[in-house]
Design brief:
The chain has a single domain, classed as MetI-like fold. The protein is 77% helix and 0% strand. The chain contains six helices and no strands.
Amino acid sequence: MIRGIPIIVLLFYLYFVMPDFGIAMSALQASILGLGIAYSAYQAENFRAGIEAIDKGQIEAAQTIGMGWWLTMRRVVLPQAVKIVLPPYGNVMIMMLKDSSQASTITVAELALQGKLIASSTFKNTSVFTLVALMYLTMSIPLILLVRHFEKKASRK
């Protein structure tokens, strides 16, 4: 259900509607909570799919040798599921980094909003927003490389 709500609407709801119910939070708190809620739903779906992708024979074999549910999950299912989940997990983390720009809609002074303010005061839209794009790219590249490293490491096992 959460994945069907646009992130910007979730941010608006947390920041502008929740005070009507007596739950007031700062724009930064609402942004962190909103992005956390939205992306935890995507990550939960990734992990569910990764766990379901494990062959049922693996689980049956573990139970046959006397492993309980928790031990089967810890020693058989999750190590295999992590290899499956790692690429989409990394993609969602990069998407979350980029979608943090939506926090500017509820007055969080993050990178995109700062760029907009600088561009509007200097009238140098091309150079400012090119720089903002490069800064997002600069922050994304280490995440991409980190995920690639973990994918290679997981494929060797």
